[in-house]
Amino acid sequence: MSHRRYAVVGAGHRSQMYVDAITGPYADRAELVAICEPNPVRAAYYVERTIAAGSPAPAVYGPDDLEAMIRAERVDRVIVCARDDLHATLIVRSLDAGADVVVEKPLTIDAESAAAIEDAIERTGREVVITFNYRYSPRNSALRALLQEGTIGEVTSIDFSWVLDTKHGADYFRRWHREKEHSGGLLVHKASHHFDLVNWWLRSTPSRVFASGGLRFYGADNARSRGLGERPARGTHDGADAFELDLRTDERLAALYLGAEEHDGYLRDRDVFGEGITIEDNLALVVDYASGATLSYSLNAHSPWEGYRVAVNGTLGRAELEVVERGAVLEAEALHPVLDPSAVDAGSSGSLRPEGERLIVQRHWEAAYEVPIESSSDGHGGGDALLLADVFEGPGDDPLARPADWRDGVRSISVGIAGNRSLETGLPVRVAELGIRLLAEPATTSAS
After folding, report:
1. What is the per-residue pLDDT for 240?
2. Number of domains in the chain
């Protein structure tokens, strides 16, 4: 059994999944030897958490000392959980310093930095793994399996609609994600998950993207047009309303962010109707694929319920996946800290739209039938646990090809990057013209 030495770069909310995995179920094969984080409060939070799990305290370094950290701590693998626009620089530096990389999605946010990662991988020959946990969610795997088996024939088109509710969706407009220069917007930060699913389901690659959308609900201009009046700049105050997040109501958020503000000035709870928001909250795309299929995609970030619907049309029939992750956001519960219902069980909303999932298949000239989905209450329907096993134990022979590398990361962000360019120009954008060598290669019908 191989034993790897890990460093986590970026000690925010998402880092906990990896820290807990290394110090918990994978402690026999992994060791957290360092945390690279500029904010001393957040770094100390995970040092203390590591010690509490019975593991030695990891060393703490700042981002400027990344290479020195990799050398001094003999780091085998760096796990990048930093802000999206910092991913590429951290990946390239880690590779050049002699470490492999595991990175949270998205791989990066623009074509130039994606090309830099591609160059570094070619230069160093090292490995970059991207953690697409949605592939591992049993419902998404079930859809991949039936498409792979040819149950509905050759796929001709997909209609994919994702809605984020006024609890989870609103949260992207409080954080650094609200600034496109830091996140690439929801088309890159959030929808790269969704585009990866489509690439993986189709086993094909995107070729052309046309996008439309805008900021139509959140933001100061929309607030003024609806007469919302003056609002506090942040949500942590007495008497917060349903769109505000009071960090004092959640011990973990208070420790990671409220107690750390004095060191970097970062506010985790900014007003969703404030100034300075540069991302969209309503988006629609048409994406052509090398296989000949067409994707029709939409994303809304202020829905009263959360989930997604996928309809796949094929030459032999149709498959429909419907997922309700939270059936309603009730005003009295709006400040509850469970923000992402796909990652953490938020409980039942008790609404007429019950939480659940259903995969229906109907072939031509036949009655519809339901495909059973073996799920669990763990993160992303049990997908997080399966993903972590592949990351820390190594992927086995997976007939569904769920493990993803940098190539899958590039293909997933290519749709969002092209979509952002289309939003700017009002024109369709060819993926091969983004300036990334991988995407300029001859079209393929196998993305994984």
Report:
1. 86
2. 3
